[in-house]
Amino acid sequence: MQEKEIYERLDEVFRDVFDDDELTVSAETTADDIDDWDSLSHITLITAVEDEFGIRFKMGEVSGMKNVGEMVDIIKERAK
Amino acid sequence: MMKELNYPFDSALLLKKKRSLRRALISDGRPRIKKKIAVLGGSTANEIADMTELFLLNNGIEPEFYLSEYNRWWQDAVFGNEELDGFAPDIVFIHTSSRNIVEFPDIKKDPADADRLLSAELERFGTAWSGIKKRYACPIIQNNFEQPYFRIMGNRDFYDKRGRVNFVNRLNSAFAEYAESAEGFYINDINYLSACYGLDKWSDPSYWHMYKYALCVPAIPDFAYNLASIIKSVYGKNKKALALDLDNTLWGGVVGDDGVEGIEIGQETHMGQVYAEFQKYLGLVRDSGVLLTVCSKNDEENALAGLNHPSGSLRPDDFIIIKANWDNKDRNIAAIARELNIGEDAIVFIDDNPAERAIVSAQLPDVAVPEIGAPEDYIRRIDRSHFFETTAFSADDLKRGEMYKQNAARAAEQAQFTDYGEYLDSLEMTAVIDDFLPIYLARITQLTNKSNQFNLTTRRFTESEMKAVYEDDGYIRLYGSLDDKFGENGIVSVVIGKINGDTLDIILWLMSCRVLKREMEYAMLDSLVDRAKARGLKTLTGYYYPTPKNNMVRELYKDFGFELISRDEHNNTVWRLELDTYVPKTSHIKIERND
């Protein structure tokens, strides 16, 4: 899957989860950049991303993710 | 109703879009009752509260949540805390799971040691339940336990007392035993729910270790739907009747085209078996007190022939109303609601044809119209929708169908009389009107919570609250049951007055619509006046609070001879009756007391 397509689909997921139609994310985006991105909405977000791409993150991956770019790397590797 | 929230729902979509869905529900302007729900969790419950909120909003309840601090459920239940006390919950939900079992049996010890641990665990929960009861006197919803996600002894875990599976099953049995006799105590059956969902997925340990969720997050919408079903049932928001299509719904094929010998039902074909099982299921639903009706595009003669097919188990007699004609189905369903005197929101319409479902949904937005899938899905789709979740079950539920039939016989009788008084006399009515009795509290509460039309204040009570009223000398309480020559109606009316100086404030006055125009309301008033006088009171004060459903009693107090005292900007009215000049009104009902 192309990175461009992954980011487009991620934008949609972020917009739904944070209920903000203007949101766009990049490789550098972190929880600090989005107001409502706290530990509780993080769970919702991870679950929604998993559903969108039909993958499951491993526990170690979820705790280790530093920014959206790392999330995209995992998706690129695993999603068909 | 928001379609996204009807079963079967897309769980991933609900989780993802919960914020915008909530926004849309909150701003739709539909009337809702507000309820405060305290969630005492042994694991994270935030997402559970969010999802439960969506399902409740969709069913006319606006919840406000209190969430206990992480794993402080037991302390909160037993000792309370300032915030929770101030919150004053209407319902407490104890969200525990097998993760919260303090000590499982030790395989190195004697099996008898498991008994000790079982008692200890039950005592711990028992203390929490009695703490809540004492502190908040409100209904409790308690999870039972999901199966453990590993089995040290394999299959032996089930029958060896030291096995975890054995321990969990014994705890669940003990919870069931407690729930059976306790009032206002309901089990959220996560043992069943997790089995439906798939235990391996449900218990995915990563959700526990990362977020302290006792179940996987994608299962939370199913969990919340189940929980919300209990809450809406406690507040009287269950459905009451099924309106069923016939062709390709109760049997395969079209009876008008294929003839009664051509329709598929019975053991001869695979599809025939599916329809036969569905009819059996509907028979069981009917036995539980749900009213069955037919809504089918058919000639009545053909419909009846199909329902008399020897391999089917439902008969024309099992249906209170059969609408088999060529009118639009929405019109027939509206007529069914009118004839049964129930709201359109109490009806579930079952039809295999998506076009018919679409018309009914569009024309009658309050009617529940489930997507029922293929015939082999029908039972599960209806069952999992929890339309008829039974939190209270009284003897009247078993007889309800019979009672509605008797009403049809009364209507036929009425047609023979020109004078309405003569008709009433011919019914040979006897009412029992008296103070509440403990055995009737369940039925009184149930009737109170589901009466919408003939209900002056639409005040709802939990069983615990009703019990408190029953035990308080500051109230005058009446229930009324009505029998006549066609049969028994059971308890049909409830009145509660609170003594306030020398007047009686009537905080609740309601009656089942199946005894409308029978003078039963006069009989209740006569009895109320007698009792108020006996307590030395001078006046009765009546209140009418308008809702979208209770317009029929807007002028009731006026008809009773009360004087209008005030009317506010919401058209809430207050009425007064002087007792010393009151003349009894009942002339066609014999009134007795229970003894």
- Global Rg of chain A: 11 Å
Strand portion of chain B? 15-25%
Helical residues, percent of chain A: 55-70%
Poorly predicted runs of 5 or more residues of chain A: none
Q: How many domains in all of chain A?
A: 1
**Domains of chain B, number:** 3
Strand coverage percent of chain A: under 5%
Give the integer mean of the pLDDT values of chain A: 92
Distance between the termini of chain B: 47 Å
Structure description:
The complex is a heterodimer of chains A (80) and B (595). With 80 residues, chain A is mostly helical. Chain A has a single domain, classed as Orthogonal Bundle (Non-ribosomal Peptide Synthetase Peptidyl Carrier Protein, Chain A), CATH 1.10.1200.10. Chain A is 60% helix and 0% strand. Chain A is globular and about 30 Å long. By secondary structure, chain B is an alpha/beta fold. Chain B contains 23 helices and 17 strands. In chain B, the strands form 3 sheets. Chain B has an 8-stranded mixed beta sheet with strand order 15-16-14-13-12-11-10-17, with helices on both faces. Chain B has a 5-stranded parallel beta sheet with strand order 2-1-3-4-5, sandwiched between helices. The longest helix of chain B is centred in the N-terminal third of the chain and has 25 residues. Chain B starts with 10 loop residues before the first helix and ends with a strand. The model of chain B has no long low-confidence stretch (mean pLDDT 93).
